[in-house]
Amino acid sequence: xxxxxxxxxxxxxxxxWKCAASPRVQHVYVAPGNAGxxxxxxxxxxxxxxDDIEALLQFAIAEDIDLTIVGPEAPLVAGIVxxxxxxxxxxxxxxxxxxRLEGSKAFTKDFLNRHRIPTASFATFTAANFDEHxxxxxxxxxxxxxxxxxxxxxxxICDTHESAVTTARAMLGGSFxxxxxxxxxxxxxxxxxxxFIVVASDQQVIAxxxxxxxxxxxxxxxxxxxxxxxxxxxxxxxxxxxxxxIMREVIEPTLRGLRSDGNPYLGFLYAGLMIAADGTPNVxxxxxxxxxxxxxxxxxxxxxxxxxxxxxxLAGTLQGHEIRWDTRAALGVVRxxxxxxxxxxxxxxxxxxxxxxxxxGKVFHGGTRREGAQIVTAxxxxxxxxxxxxxxxxxxxxxxxxxxxxxxNLVQYRLDIGYRAIKR
Length: 424
What we know:
14 helices, Rossmann fold, 4 domains
């Protein structure tokens, strides 16, 4: 069979690599892909943008693609699954209406409240009704969020009322474009953040391996929010008891609520959770796709056939489907371009990739492209180096061995990925 992966980041490299490992798969196309996907066996890039839905559909028809898996959120929110379904093409991901869980934070907060799913208290504003007095009356710190898609960077934690007001006005004034036309201001939750990702087929659901992301750019969880600077799996905080609670209090009522609202869900569902001291799993956000960089360590541990898993969800036969996992831990460290997450450099030559390929672990490409014989930086999050080990500490050591082998000008990365698990 032939598979099409939509997207060009590290998550899509990991998805393509894992799909290519299936003995049933003849070839994997990635649109648009990157320098890493172009180098994988049985994988090739297609020069079609991830948000060009019509061109993607025509390619899928012309090549008789058997299965399309959508990586990034933008085409899902734009309705790629609906368009493919109308043409009778199998596309793994939620419908446009279900993908509003990620496309609109205001929609999601209202959804969580209506279905009594734990989350932070909040208020929603536009430029027309913004209330500075409300902001100044709230307890600090405060979280200000752009309602729409902002590449994982539309969340600002404000330590003063003045910065919260300034941030809110900037968002409403266009600092995040149309994504900030509506904003959500919510209470800051204390606890430990985890990523909980499932495969869902309406009411049938299978939890994937647990993981923990590192959103802030700098060591010690300092600096601005990013799309993610590294992740590891499993997350020790998610005990079997906590996993059952997350399923019972978050995942299952979410899927029931979507169905009752007329939006049954199919695809990867990512719940970003803050685990309170008493164990309450508060929802920070939903993503309607696999996380990045969580996908890289999770898929390194996945021993089952990813294509068969997606097909079971599409066929409505998830119930009873078993997933096998490598018992070792996996940890991924993101190496980003200078300036990320703000304006960042592109076009810097990358050295050390061949030496890294000879070491244990795996380097997944995100923002890279090939210029002749040279691979150069082409995005904010450039690479994700993933190590495996009998413990998170061992996986961390293997990942950083890869990290320290690869170089380019003004590279930036965290030195403490996995510190919570190691401390625990």
